[in-house]
Amino acid sequence: MRGKLITLEGIDGSGKSTVLERLKAHPAMSRVVFTREPTTCWIGEAVEHAIHSDTDHLAELFLFTADHAEHISKVIQPALEDGKTMISDRYSDSRYAYQGVTLGDRFDDPIKWIQSIHSGWTIVPDKTILFDIDPKIAVGRCGNRGEQTKFEKIGFLERVRANYLRLAEEDPGRFMIVDTDRPIEKIEADVVELLTSVVQALY
Ligand code: ADP
Predict the structure, then answer these.
(1) Which end of the chain has less neighbouring CB within 10 Å, N or C?
(2) The domain that contains 9 carries what CATH number?
(3) Helix residue spans in 52-134 (DSSP H)
C-alpha cells in the first residue's frame, strides 16, 4: 500500500522544531520517517545561502522549488512507494505562505501563481498540521536563539501567518490547526494524538 505524507507548517518560532524533537523520541512515532525542507542536499544548502543573503525573491523561490523537486524524487516518492508514513518539517505550503509575501509586489495573487508552478508534479500532503501562534510571541521566542534571519520580523510574519490561515481555509480537509501559544507538553500531547488518529484514519 502507498505510504502517507504528513507535513508540519507554521511561522518561525511557532515551536515546530521543539515538538519534532520530542515526537522523534515518542514510541508511537517509531516507524515514521522524518524529513524536512529545505533539505540537506546541495540544493538545500543553496537555499540556506539565499535565506541568509539579499538574493532576488524570484530566484529564491526557484531555488526552494528546485529543492522541493529533488526532495520529492529522491526521498518522498520512494518512501511513499515503499509504504512508509512520512512527516516533513516544512513542505510546499511554506513556499506558498512565505514567498506569497516576498513576491507580493510582482504578482496579483502570488500564492495562486506559486501553486501553479508546483502543479502537475508536486505531491500534495495527506494531512498538514499548522502550528499557529501570534508572531509577537513567536519572534520573542526566536530572539532567545541568537541571530535572526530576514524572515523573523513581526510585520513579515503577520503576513505569512495570514497566508497560512488562508491556505487552511481553502483546504479544510487537509489542514489541522494547533494553537502553539501553550506549554510545550500540551502541544506535544495534542500533536501526538492528532498524528496517531490521522495515521490510523489514513490506513
Ligand atoms: P520553529 O521550529 O517553529 O521555528 P522552535 O521550535 O525552534 O520554532 O522554537 C523557537 C524557540 O521557542 C525555541 O527557543 C524554543 O525553545 C522555544 N519554544 C518552542 N515551543 C515553546 C513553547 N510551547 N513555549 C515556550 N517556548 C517555546
Answers:
(1) N
(2) 3.40.50.300
(3) 57-71, 77-81, 92-94, 100-102, 110-118
- The pLDDT assigned to 99 comes to 97
| 22 sits in which H/E element | helix 16-24
Helix, strand, or coil here: 193? helix
The pLDDT of residue 148 is 66
Q: State the cell numbers at 53.
A: 543573503
Ligand 1 within 6 A of CB of 44? no
Residue 152 scores a pLDDT above 90: no
Domain that holds residue 124: 4-202
pLDDT tens for each residue of 156-177: 999 999 999 999 999 999 999 9
**Total number of domains in the chain:** 1
Protein residue whose Cα sits closest to atom 13 of ligand 1: 141
Ligand 1 site, residue 141, Cβ cutoff 6 A: yes
Query: For the segment 48-83, what is each residue's pLDDT rounded down to a tens digit?
Result: 999 999 999 999 999 999 999 999 999 999 999 999
Largest CA distance in the chain: 46
Ligand 1: which of 8, 18, 137 to mutate, judged by most atoms within 8 Å of the beta carbon? 18
Cα four-point dihedral sign 31, 193, 124, 47? negative
